[in-house]
Amino acid sequence: xxVNLILSAQTLCLAPQLKRSGLINGLYVLKNVPAKTYLxxxxxxxxxxxxxxxxxxxxxxxxxxxxxxxxxxxxxxxELVLKALRANILLEPGIGPEPVRAHEWQWSVRPKVLGxxxxxxxxxxxxxxxxxHPRLPTTFLDWLGGLLLLSAALSFGSFLAGCLIRGAGGEVxxxxxxxxxxxxxxxxxxxxxxxxxxxxxxxxxxxEPAVLAIATGFAAWxxxxxxxxxxxxxxxxxxxxxxxxxxxxxxVGSKRNLSDAEQSYIFPPNRRPETRGWLLSRxxxxxxxxxxxxxxxxxxxxxxxxxxxxxxxxPWSFSYWLxxxxxxxxxVGLWIGGSxxxxxxxxxxxxxxxxxxxxxxARRNTLRLWRARWMSAKSMVLDxxxxxxxxxxxxxxxxxxxxQRLELARAMAVKRHGPWKSLWEYESLPTQVALIVSxxxxxxxxxxxxxxxxxxxxxxxxxxxxxxLADPKFPNYRLRSLTPVTLLTMDRTTAEELVVRKIxxxxxxxxxxxxxxxxxxxxxxxxHLQAVNRFARLSxxxxxxxxxxxxxxxxxxxxxxxxxxxxxxxxxxGRQMAIIRAGEFFGEIGLMQNSSPNATVVAYQGTRCLxxxxxxxxxxxxxxxxxxxxxxxxxxxxxGRPLFPLDEGDFSTI
Length: 654
What we know:
- The strands form eight sheets. The protein has a four-stranded antiparallel beta sheet with strand order 9-15-10-13. Strands 16-24-18-21 form a four-stranded antiparallel beta sheet.
- It is built from 21 helices and 25 strands.
- With 654 residues, the protein is an alpha+beta fold.
- Strand 2 and strand 3 form a beta hairpin.
- It is elongated.
- The protein has five domains: 89 residues, Alpha-Beta Complex (Outer Surface Protein A, domain 3), CATH 3.90.930; 135 residues, no CATH class; 46 residues; 137 residues, Jelly Rolls, CATH 2.60.120; 121 residues, Sandwich (Jelly Rolls).
C-alpha cells in the first residue's frame, strides 16, 4: 500500500454494493456485500466517506471537509481512508474485490425467541458445573465420550449461531466440517453478526457458551468423567481477552465504542507513543475496561476453583475462603497489585525507550553536524566528485543540468574562513559568489536608517553573493560567519554567466531567500524538502508600511502569512496581545476552520511577510499530509485545544 500515492493523487469511490447497519454502540457498521468485509465508523466518519459517492481524490474530499467545517482530526481522517480502502469500502474506480458468496442457509430462528432460554441454559449449566464435583477421565470410554460430547456441543453451538444470524437478517458463510481439529466439529463463519442489532449480537454470542455450559453440567451430573473437555472448552470460550464471549458481550453493551479508524493504526504518523498513550488513557476512562478487568479476576478465580476441586481440595465452603484470606489474602493482594504495577512499568519502559531512542538519534545527528563544522572542516577534501555532490544538495545548483554543474565545479575554488568573520566580498557589492559546503553564516539586511536587522541563517547548500539580485528592492546585505565555514567560490562575472542567466529571477528569489528561511522556522522543520520548495514557489514576499493592517479582526481570512522580516503587533479590541517576529505565522487557523479571526495584526517598520492565498494554501495542505499534520499540531498548541473537529458554534478564532 503506497500511502503517499493514495493520500495525494489516487481517485477513490464508495463501493457500489454497500450495506450500512443502524447505530450500534454509537457506530455504523459498513459491509461490502460481495467482498464480505466490514468497517465500523462513527456518524462523523460516515459523512466523510459519503463524499466518495462520486469518484474523488483524498485531497479533494479533505478540502471539501475543511470548507464545510466537517473535518475530523487529520490523523483520524487519513486513518479512515486507509482502513476503508483496506476493507474495500473505498475502491479504485473500475476495480472490485473478488466476491465471496453467502451460503443459502435454510434454517433460521429469531434471536428474541431464544434469548431467555439461552440465558437460562447458560446459568443452569454454569451452576451445575460449579456445584458438582468435576472428575478426571479414568477409562477409555470417558475420554472418547468426552471428546464426542465436546464435538456435539461445539457443532450444535455453531449451528444454533448460524440459525440466529439468519433469523436476525444476517448471512452465513463457509459452513463446513473441520476434520483436522480435536475433536472434529462443524463450524461456520459468524462474522456477519457484527452488522446486526445489539440484542441480536448478545444472543448470538451466548449460543455457544450456553450449549457448552449445559453440556458440562449435564455430563457432570449424569456421566462424571466425561465433562472435562467440555469444561475446558467452556472456560476457554469465556476468556476475558482475545475475543472471549463474555468480553464480547461487555463490548456490545458499551454506549460508545471506538471505531476502526480510532484504534489499531496503520497510518504511519499515528504510530507514535503520544497516540498510544492517548488510547490507553481513553481506555482507562471507559467503564467497560474496568468491567473487563473485574471479569478477568472472576474468571481467574473460577479457574482456581475448578483446578482445586479436580486436585481434591474443594474450596466450596465459606470457611475455606475465610481461612484462605487470613493465610494468603495479603500475599495474593500483593501479587495482584505487583503484577498490575509491573505491567504498567513495562508499558512505560517500552514507550520511554522508543521516545529516548528517537531523541537520541536527533541529538546524535546534531552532534555529528557540530563536529563536522568545528572539528573536521579544515581536513575536508573537495575533489571533483565531492563538489558535484555538494552542488546536487544545493536547491539552486540542482536546478542546473549536470554538464553545467560539472563546468561550475571545475571553475570553483575552495576558501575557508574562521568563525565570527565579516565576509565583505559577498555583501552589498559582491565580487565573489560562493556555495556553502560546511558551516553557518548569519545574513543581515541593512535598513535605510543604517541599522542592520537579522534576516536568516544560511547553512550547507545555500548560496551567498547573489542576494542583491534575488532581492533587488533591498540589495544591502551583511554576512558574518557563525562557525568555521568552507566555501566553493567563483567570480561574480563567472556566476552571472554560468548560473544567473540560466535561472529565472523568480527562481533566484525562491532558492536564495525563501527556501533557506523556510527550512529553519518551526512550522517547516518536519517538512519534506520538496514540500518546502513548493511552498516557496507558492508564496510571495509582501512589504507593509509601518502601521498598516495585515489581518483585520472579524473579516474573512484570505491569506496565510509568515513574518519574513521585521515584527508585527497583535491587538484585540484595541488592546495589545502579543508581538510576533520573523518565523512566526498567523491566519492559518481561520483558513483551516473557515472562520474569521478575532484579532488584528499591524505591521511595524520594515515588516515583510510571505503570503499565500487561501485557495493555494488549502490545495497545498490537502496534497501534503505531513504539512497538514504539522499545521494541525502547531495550531492546536496555539489554540489550547484541538484544531479539529470543530465545536458547534465555534466560528471565530485567533
